[in-house]
Amino acid sequence: MHEEVTIFEFNKTSNRKEWELVNDEVMGGLSMGLLQIDSDGKGIFSGHVSLENNGGFCLIRHDIERISVENYSKFIIKVKGDGKKYAFRCRSGEHQRHTYSYSFKTTEDWQTIEIPFNQMEAVFRGEDLKLPNYHGDFLTQIAFIIKNGVAEDFKLKIDSIKIV
Predict the structure, then answer these.
(1) What fold characterizes domain 5-163?
(2) pLDDT at 1 exceeding the cut of 60
């Protein structure tokens, strides 16, 4: 195994525009999410999920230059939540339509969550696919999504995303 590698770490000079916001408005929904950098330099993914007009999700994603991760076995994310469930997602190819997803429940304290590659399930537009779990060969994108099937406000504080 290789040493821990930082994929993204928020800090006071982080540019929130490096992350793309995708609300369910792409499907006609009315959910509103945003990403901000707080005074401590942490990323704050917050907003309101609405179920109106077939909505129900907010997502932020960050594209990275394709890297090999075959010598690694898991993501380590450091987050502080609101007691709600979120999912961390990744993509292994630039032209790949599906992502690999792992759900986790947050607390109001800082958490270090380990996400084994082989437990990340293939999904496309919210549907589980009958494909093998993430095999951990390449990485081109990381993302966070909230989609709990309920209308709710949310707030997820993000410190870092690493691989080990």
Answers:
(1) Jelly Rolls (2.60.120)
(2) no
